[in-house]
Design goal:
Length: 289
């Protein structure tokens, strides 16, 4: 039995949708969907209806694209209300969400729980010299502006930062309640740490990639593995001996379409025997193509 992970399926693209259609049956295995199945509830449902038929259990957490709502939608249908619709769609299909109890992974000798989390971002992944109120302007100075600024509404919170901070507080409380002797696989869309949210081509996009409030969670809590997406830069890294897996598929130009989505599923548990010099060292990066 294997725990697999992927993210950023973006099934609005025909190539990605076809790749999901062609995913093989994996009886007994579990699948993590670490956000950004698409941009609508229908996109999420499309993916769920296919993968729940092919895996024993599915774990989901939202990405920023999943949370988008069209311009003009009433405030009562955006933000938290839309997130709750996504959660309900998952729960109707038996899919584990950040609103559910952490599931015990049956394939481990030590009690290991799969913990999907939703924390968002607060623009703190920026240089210390850039004040908070200038973060979006600082990115715009190099022509970078995330569509979230228009499409990701925080209602009823006053801002995305406020929503982020509420989620961080609630999530930290849940993680603190992890039973003694248990280990965690932490599953989120956004990178936990600023030093993992490095995008060489668009470095100032980092402000939409997470929050500094989570940077020590991998050591504050009994975490063995952290799974995330969002960056569209597939890799395995280590921090303080904890494995960090970025598992994005991405847009069609960012993956080899003829290989199919199955080729990009990342094995999370059992821990894969990656053969790389310095295996497990904090300065080791295994990039996945």
């Amino acid at each position: 039995m294997t725990l697999w992970a992927t993210s950023d399926l973006h099934v609005a693209y025909d190539e990605n949708r076809d790749a999901v259609d062609e995913m093989q049956q994996r009886p007994g295995d579990w699948l993590i969907l670490a956000g950004d199945t698409g941009e609508t509830l229908a996109h999420l449902e499309y993916v769920l209806d296919r993968v729940t038929d092919r895996f024993e259990r599915v774990v989901w957490t939202p990405g920023n694209h999943d949370l988008w709502t069209p311009r003009g939608w009433p405030s009562g249908a955006r933000g938290l209300a839309h997130y709750e619709r996504l959660v309900a769609a998952c729960q109707r299909r038996g899919v584990l969400t950040p609103e559910d109890p952490f599931a015990l992974w049956p394939g481990a000798s030590v009690p290991t729980r799969i913990a999907p989390i939703f924390t968002l971002y607060d623009y703190s992944f920026r240089p210390d010299t850039v004040p908070h109120h200038r973060a979006v302007e600082w990115a715009a100075d190099e022509g970078i502006r995330c569509a979230d600024e228009t499409l990701l509404a925080p209602d009823p919170y006053a801002s995305r930062e406020a929503w982020c901070h509420a989620r961080v507080e609630a999530t930290a409380a849940r993680l603190s309640a992890t039973p003694a002797g248990s280990r965690l696989v932490l599953v989120g869309h956004f990178p936990l740490r600023r030093d993992l949210a490095v995008l060489p081509l668009i470095p100032r996009f980092s402000i939409w990639c997470g929050t500094r409030l989570t940077e020590q969670w991998h050591t504050d809590f009994p975490v063995d593995v952290v799974v995330s997406g969002h960056l569209h830069m597939r890799s395995t890294r280590w921090r303080n001996g904890v494995r960090f897996e970025e598992v994005s598929l991405g847009y069609p130009k960012q993956w080899d379409v003829p290989r199919g989505a199955d080729a990009y599923l990342r094995q999370i548990l059992p821990e894969p025997a990656i053969r790389a010099e310095g295996w497990g060292r904090d300065d080791t990066v295994v990039r996945h193509r």
